[in-house]
Amino acid sequence: MNYIIGAFKPSCNISITFSDAKTRKQVPLKKEGGQAVSVPLFQSQENISGKISIEPIQGKKVEHNGVKVELLGQIEMYFDRGNFYDFTSLVRELDVPGEIYERKTYPFEFSTVEMPYETYNGVNVRLRYVLKVTVSRGYGGSIVEYQDFVVRNYTPPPSINNSIKMEVGIEDCLHIEFEYNKSKYHLKDVIIGKIYFLLVRIKIKNMDLEIRRRESTGSGPNTHVETETLAKFELMDGAPVRGESIPIRLFLSPYELTPTHRNINNKFSVKYYLNLVLVDEEDRRYFKQQEITIYRLQETS
Amino acid sequence: MLLDGIEDEDKWLAEGIAGIQHHAFYMHRALDANNLRDALKYSAQMLSELRTSRLSPHKYYELYMRAFDELRKLEMFFKDESRHGVSIIDLYELVQHAGNILPRLYLLCTVGSVYIKSKEAPAKDVLKDLVEMCRAVQHPIRGLFLRSYLSQVSRDKLPDLGSEYEGGSDTVTDAVDFVLQNFTEMNKLWVRMQYQAFFGLSGLQGPGRAREKHEKERSELRDLVGKNLLVLSQIEGVELQMYKDTVLPRVLEQVINCKDELAQYYLMDCLIQVFPDEYHLQTLETLLGACPQLQPTVDIKTVLSQLMDRLSNYAASSTDVLPEFLQVEAFAKLSSAIGRVIEAQVDMPIVGAISLYVSLLTFTLRVHPDRLDYVDQVLGACVRKLPGNTKVEDKRAIKQVVALLSAPLEKYNDIVTALTLSNYPRVMDHLDNGTNKVMAMVIIQSIMKNDSCISTADKVEVLFELIKGLIKDLDGTSDDELDEEDFHDEQNSVARLIHMLYNDDPEEMLKIICTVKKHIMNGGPKRLPFTVPPLVFSALGLVRQLQGQDGEVVGEDMPATPKTVFQFLNQTVDALSSIPSPELALRLYLHCAEAANDCDLEPVAYEFFTQAFVLYEEEIADSKAQVTAIHLIIGALQRMNVFGTENRDTLTHKATGYSAKLLKKPDQCRAVYACSHLFWVDDQDGVKDGERVLLCLKRALRIANAAQQMASVTRGSSGPVTLFVEILNKYLYFFEKGNPQITSAAIQGLVELITTELQSDSSNVKPASDAFFASTLRYIQFQKQKGGAMGEKYASIKV
Which residue, A86, A166, B21, B598, has most beta carbons within 10 Å? Predict the structure, then answer.
């Protein structure tokens, strides 16, 4: 198909550079093909500025009906392919209609951009931020160039962060009390806790703590829920007896977590759960799931 | 099925080892390349082999040791930060990312030990974290080995006194706390094995077999648990006060609370073995207080016995430590502890209780040899535990009782000491008859061996109470089973014993004798012949003693006079005659008579003779016995010098009369010529009635004649020339002694008579009598040639 592409090869190259590209932190972003590319990292309220160069292919001129750059925040549902919901859309007109004969550079700036949502790549949904440069043409279609960037928003440590403590059980069979030291954890946090066995009448083989991510998309009858187990961490080996207390210490850093997202633009939610699973010798599973909130803490380094 | 099980196990073990080797190979490569990530990954995979549930403890240990060796290499790598570039603190977190708990914790312990060594965190914090985190392994075998690993790697890093890890906030207390906690957790896991079937095969076997196997596997693991106590004992900083305040109470708490028979026994034993004796002594109360709280099935007696043995050895090691024992009242505490244990353990077999007392007794004898009252207390306590009025039947229990009773004898080498123990006989009462006898023999042998003299009547009383099994028939003994030889041995021992009862003071001696008599009189016909003679001789000894003192103590109002003794003797010997054992009684009477004679008590001596004659008449029927008896009587009578003429005549008359009434002629003859001595006592003022001597001899000759005639009538040949020769010898005797009635003519006649007899009876060669006669003649010849007064006397006799 290369020759076809070649035939319709755009008649100009568009490049987008950020003004602080040298110093700005780059983070990997997974693209559709699966390969990761490094893109700049922003957070809300930041200025996004830079330059856009348009360079026509040697010996050609580009006729256009105007050049603009847009900053888009989009939510893309995979089952609803092609449909983007733009929750943010800012436009800067760069040029009035005319012709470009040689390389032309336009500075741009979006100041203190409100970007309330974080970039997110999920199973069924993607939230992305992109700069979109459009060279509008009347015929042959407009020339468009995209530049992705990632947004992460930092949350201060919550002022109220209660522990999760609960007694659960199956009557005359198993009674346990578990405790996680917090209900809100940042991404590099450690879950500390313990499980206290009040009654054990079954032969337990082992006990795991799972971190599960529950992504729900859509609303009403069209809601899609996808649950993934991100971590399976063995807490205990063997059968405890009454009165035993088993420590929990789970470091979150090795796992690819995101902050909890609640009802993002009425389109999707991402929630995290700790699932305590006890397995008995007949491989029956007994579990209790508790939601935890994950947030992004400003890294101090 | 069992065989399959073992084969399978070997297969699983081989697989496990192969797995470890495989992953270790990659781990080594990662270590060589200083690649931390891979090192962690492969080490975790390697350690995953330890997650198996299919191996018995023994095989699991093999697997564990392989992994252990590999972990040493990993530790070396961790230690060298330049190789992996990660700080130890980060490393400590990093290893905790492992998904599986068991590899995670092995790695954590490994890094933890490096962490402590780096001193970047207080040792106690790391130790505490490790020991807490290890709770996550609740599987008994895996948990035990994991914690054992923890103990192993932390052992040289405890903040002990003088260790480089001590100081700052790290104190010995932290080291102790750590070890104690690890110990507690390990013990819990170990105890839990009892309740959890962990081995896949157990379902395939019979329940009994599985259980047995289970127990065996459990005890294979016990040293893992016990090692913690060893570590504790090796912590320098655990001095007495800390042991008393912290270590012991916490160990005991765990021991008691685990409520497991095997564990309780093993751990108590361990505790006693690993800590110094001095500590035990100083914490005796606490230690003993725990004993009644153990499970009733625990073999607490062995534990206590071991404790007491250790303490006894400690006491024996140096006299310097003895005051400590007194200070802590060791005896009282042990004694009451034993009482409580026995009370608490209702099902304890009697042998257990007794063996406890044996140990306590050994302890007492070693530690308080001077406190006889303690020894007595122990015996008393033991008696109270024995079922009232019944014999101990259990063989092992009997053995213990014997040990209990023998201990004081061995210690004091002196039965006299044992006799002052009021409970001693009460314990003996509980022995069955056979053992009782054996014990009595032991006692007697002890007396003999040590040559100890029992010198008071009270002690004699006690002693005879002890050995009453030998002295009389006990209830329920059946005579049939008695071995004759044993019986003789026993009774001879008793007889020997009687000679060991002695006191210089006649009054006490008399009491002793009376006491002995009281006891032996119950002995019955079989025993009296053995026991009476020594008693009689003992009494006669007293008589001699009194007789010796007579002059000095006149006038004193003494109960012990020869007369009383003789009365006593009379009764004693009488008992013999009635059982009946007349020959023996007769001899004893004669002995008594002689003693009375020496004491110048004519009526008494007469009475004894009377008794002897009565016996002869009434009881001695056997002709041979009669011969013996009459000769004894004659012999005794001959020596009597106390009798007045009248009494003497009566007695000699009797004796002569009986002599002539013997059944066989030769016997008659010999008795009669023996009687001749009754009339001629070769003393200065002895009786010298030559006429009656001659009468006797003549009578003897007549009898000899008659005998010869009878012989020729019945057998066609004249017999007993011997008798004549014997009579000739008597003649010669009296002739030499100067009896005027015996003339050389009479002797001459007799010689000729014998010569004739011999010739007429030439066919019948009797070399014995010939020789006898020949030597008699030679004697006459010799006397003749000797010259002097005697030669003159013999001159007239021609041969």
Answer: B598
